[in-house]
Specification:
single chain; 6 helices
Length: 191
């Protein structure tokens, strides 16, 4: 309550230091003043590359709000794993769901806020899963019918599963992933 973006890095660092920083970081600190790229960059740095950051833009009858929203959008565009929850557009279409101060949401506005942030969390989770399942750098797909012996023979499915990590058990030998081109003998099914 009544915090600006300048408070964000300290809050985030305290959570990180105590091991409480979760995979998704939601930051909604634009309503109480203009923002500076420095604290935003520090929030992104503390979150680290493995976390998704959701920046909630602002809606209020305040002169700095358009600049805040523009700065948040520009920052999100330039930083991977950073996205905007567009609270301004969501509540701007139904301002009657705000309290009398035209800033804080009523219970109906709270539902809109939760839906707005929740939609971005769902997209961020989809991105996270896609990244986790993407081929690793230097990997390539070989799609063809193959006949071979040795490590990748059908009797070695268990070993292939161990080598392949999180992949489901191999059920066929028609599409394989070379995890590293230097490992030409170590194949695992790409599912």
């Amino acid at each position: 309550v009544s915090r600006s973006m300048w408070a964000g890095p300290g809050i985030l660092q305290a959570l990180a230091d105590s091991g409480q920083l979760r995979p998704f970081v939601v930051v909604a600190l634009g309503t109480n003043g203009a923002i500076d790229p420095g604290p935003l960059a520090e929030v992104r740095r503390i979150a680290g590359p493995e976390r998704q950051v959701i920046l909630v833009n602002a809606f209020a009858p305040r002169s700095w709000i358009p600049g805040v929203n523009s700065d948040l959008e520009a920052f999100a565009t330039q930083h991977p794993h950073t996205r905007i929850a567009d609270w301004s557009a969501s509540i701007g279409a139904q301002p009657e769901l705000l309290a009398g101060d035209q800033i804080h949401p009523s219970s109906g506005g709270g539902e809109v806020y939760a839906q707005t942030v929740g939609a971005q969390l769902a997209l961020a989770e989809a991105d996270r899963v896609a990244l986790a399942n993407a081929p690793r750098e230097g990997a390539f797909i070989l799609e063809s019918e193959l006949t071979f012996t040795g490590l990748a023979a059908p009797k070695d499915y268990g070993l292939l599963q161990q080598v392949g990590g999180r992949r489901a058990p191999v059920v066929g030998m028609d599409a394989f992933m070379f995890w590293n081109p230097a490992w030409m003998g170590v194949l695992t099914r790409w599912l």
